[in-house]
Structures are given as C-alpha cells and as structure tokens.
Amino acid sequence: MSRALSLLATALVVAACSSSPKKPQPTPLAPAAALMGTQLAWSAQVGQSGVSLVPHVAGGRVFVAGNAGVVAALDAATGKDVWRLNLGTPIAAGVGSDGQTAAVITGNNQLVAIADGSERWRVRMPARSFTAPLVAGGRVFVLSADRAVLAFDGKTGARLWTQSRPAEPLVLSQTGALLAVGDTLVAGLAGRLTGLNPDNGAVRWETPVATSRGTNEVERLVDVVGPVSRIGNNVCARAYSAAVGCVDASRGTPVWTRAAQGTTGVHGDDRLVFGSETDGRFLAWQRANGEPAWSIDRLKYRSLSAPLALGRVVAVGDGSGIVHLISREDGSEMTRLTTDGSAILAAPALAGDALVVQTRNGGVFAWRPQ
Description:
By secondary structure, the protein is mostly beta strands. It contains one helix and 32 strands. β22 and β23 form a beta hairpin.
C-alpha cells in the first residue's frame, strides 16, 4: 500500500510541475482544406476515456475501453460489438490484445484478462501502470510505473518473471513503450530502450534515448513515452521533454538521437518520423539520420495527441476533437475530420483501411478514404 501511495504521490507531483497557471490560446485554424476525400464509416461509444486508454487493433477487431470499466471488442469493418464487458471497476490502462485475449489494468492495480467477452483471470499488481499490456506468444507483459516489466501466463495469470530496474524518485503518469521486435521484448525504462528475453526477462541490451540531467528531479525525468515507431528492427522513440531517437533493436545500438521538447509519442514510415513539441509545433525528422525534414506552426497550443503515419498523410488529434490529416511530404493540410468536440488524448489507430480515434467523452470514430 505504501508503495502504491508513493507512486500516486509522485505521479501527481509530475502532473503539477508540468502544468502552467495560464496556457496560451490555441492557434486559430484557417479555413479547412479539402484535398482528399474521407467518409465516416462508423462510430461507437465506451464512456469517458483517458490518455492511457488507447484503441488497439488486432485480428480484425478494434479493442477499446472507458474509464468506468467498459471493455469492448468492435468489428473493425462495421463498428458493431463483437463483445462488450463491464468489469465493474475503473480502468487505468489498456487495451492490449493478440486478437483473442484482451488485457487491461484497473485503477486498483489489477491486471484483468478477457477472452470472448468473459473475464478469464485477474491478478493484483505490485505497482500502478499507465501502459496498455502487451499480449503476445501466450503471455501478457506489463510495464509498471516503478520501471519494472512483468510477464504472466496468458491462460492462468501465473506470474512467470519480473525484471526490475533502479527506481527513481518520480514517475510519469503517461503511456510508456512496450513492444515485441522479433524474439525480443523492448521496453522503455527511464530514458533507455531495453531489450529483454521474453522467456525469462534477462536483459539483452540497453540503449539510451536521453540521459538524465538537470538540477532537480523533475528536470531529470526522461522516461520513454509511447507510442513508438517501428519499421523492421528500427525503433524510434521519444524521451519525455528531452529527445527523440532511433535504435537498431536487433543489436541494441543507437542510430541517432536529437534534442526535442515534446511529451507525446512519435510515429513514422520508412523515410520519416513525426511528432510534436510541447508548444504544438509539428515536426518531421529523417528516419535514417535524424536530420529535420520540415516543421509547421499552425497547430501550436492545440494540445496535440501522438500522431499516426498512414500512406501519404499523418493523422494527429487535438484538444477540440479535430483530427488533422497532414501531408507527410511537407506538412501541408490535406483535410480535417470532426468528432464529438472533446479532446483526442491517445494516438489514432489504423484498422484495415480505416482511421480510428477515441475521444475523452468516449466516442470511437472510424473514417475510410473515398
């Protein structure tokens, strides 16, 4: 209990320290461009949502959750419920799934596995988590806020192993990085990407994205935040308010790193990596070497989500529920999409040919190109 209370207190400290007494007004938007056609394919509702409740696509389904306890698997083509379950307790992070088993973490630190719309098992976690579980290879992996990675048996919930890293005074109440790259489990631990053996948790390699510096604990907080951008073995990630960099995950060697002040994750394609700075300036970096490709200022102070690169555009949501589709070549506007007017907190997702977003008010929206 004391450990959990300590983590909660430090998370609140970080939130308080990162807030501003008076925020700049969002940059007014020019008249919308209409350089590409889109059509709303479907919409659904899961209830009020938070930044750690990220839409997840697997097995032709879109998995979503709401703060109050609803978890749903939606048909990616139609948006209709495949199944829907109310866990009866608030949800703090999720959803992760391999298309069959889904997993979320509740507000009272329980990891819950769901299969075919029924709860399979539930286990108590030793610390809070703000990152969706990773379900892969018959196991469920969790990145906890105290910088530990845990593995559980997907059928029984039995804990298989735990890999703990040195604790630091503050933790970040934000989605971290946890993904599979080949036969390696890659996790963001403090300012490093760490490659683990998924069978036993042994560390295979560690590569810094940013080095902790500064005169106080807040300035030294450089946790890797999600989402990250993976193309083959190349993984690009952001260290909170410090840097963006890419790592060769096959060998655990750095490719490049560049100072950057953003606090949300990145995404990209085989040529470019995209992300925004704290003030909303949106940038593209060359994936090969980190050199700047372009930047735009027209979305400043609009509380941007993490982006999603898809085809010739990059999608990013804002604090007023608008999805901006931006040309990947130069950042020019292609079109805008509207939701329910509440903030888009998590990165958009791609379900087949549909772009999917989830809003703070729990609306789930999917568009397809015309």
